[in-house]
Amino acid sequence: MHKIIAANWKMYKNRTEAATTAAEIAAALPGVLPEGREVVVFPPATAIECVAQAFRGQKSLTVGAQNFYPAPEGAFTGEVSVDMLRDVGAEWVLAGHSERRHIFGESDEMVARKTVFALSHGMKTMLCIGEKLEEREQGNLYAVLERQLTAFFSSKPAAMADDALTGRFAIAYEPVWAIGTGKVAGPGEVREAHGVTRALLEKFMGETGKKLPILYGGSVKPDNAGALIALDNVDGLLVGGASLEAQSFLQIIGA
Q: What 3-state DSSP class applies to 128?
């Protein structure tokens, strides 16, 4: 299975800054990208087009959007549609990032609706799941991940065949307590969570569940990226702060 190294730039970088960083990544990538890896960058919406332009011509580099609304168009002030995002060069979208869930109040049902909508409208989609610290400490890891994945799979229409999701759908496991805190889940904790996620995907999808990539996200840095990506069922990384500087992110890409 190929591995995905994804950058989430969150609410950082104006167009000039984003274009500069993207150009640095694109220029250096051929010398650092291991075989079988692809790179996805999720810049702020205002910078998607200039990042896509910087990545043009490199098959292993794609751009995505951090958020969208699950409707083709309409009176949804402040929102953007997947067609608008595709128009400026986005191929991927994120759904269910912990900040969307816990700061902006997106429910499991809303995240599921967005995920189904994006996949139905031709966007590659990365669905984020993960538990809060108290949920982990209370022994509810399995229950939380099962609840979040059940919301999607129970909403997925029968016409959306499981095998058609291969290459278009990825899961990002992110322990909420390790995002932007400097804390990183230990190898045992990552193995456990990714093993649970893999088992749930196989429960919902059968053999196809073995083929979907599961990324780890949570304070990934150049000095821990190699150890994380070497763990069982870790098929990539979702990188936050350490992806904002090109050299830091390139070290992670090549880890």
A: strand
Residue 171 to residues 71, 106, 110, 114, 236: CA-CA distances in angstroms?
22, 17, 17, 14, 10
Active site residue 97: yes
Q: What is the pLDDT of residues 3-19, one digit of tens each?
A: 999 999 999 999 999 99
Of residues 49, 97, 106, 194, which has the active-site annotation?
Answer: 97
Q: Is 161 exposed, middle or buried (0-12, 13-18, 19+ CB in 10 A)?
A: exposed
Classify burial at 142, counting beta carbons within 10 Å of its beta carbon; exposed 0-12, middle 13-18, buried 19 or more: middle
**192 has catalytic annotation:** no
Of 214, 208, 204, the C-alpha closest to 171 is 214
pTM for the full predicted model: 0.96
Asked if pLDDT for residue 181 goes beyond 80, the answer is no
In whole angstroms, what is the distance from residue 179 CA to residue 9 CA? 13
Distances (CA, A) of 205 to 95, 113, 197, 198: 19, 18, 12, 10
The continuous run of DSSP H or E covering 63 comes out as strand 61-65
Collect all residues with Cβ–Cβ distance below 8 Å to 221 and sequence separation of at least 6. 242, 248, 252
Q: How many residues does the chain have?
A: 255
Identified catalytic residue from 99, 131, 146, 174: 174
Amino acid occupying residue 77? T
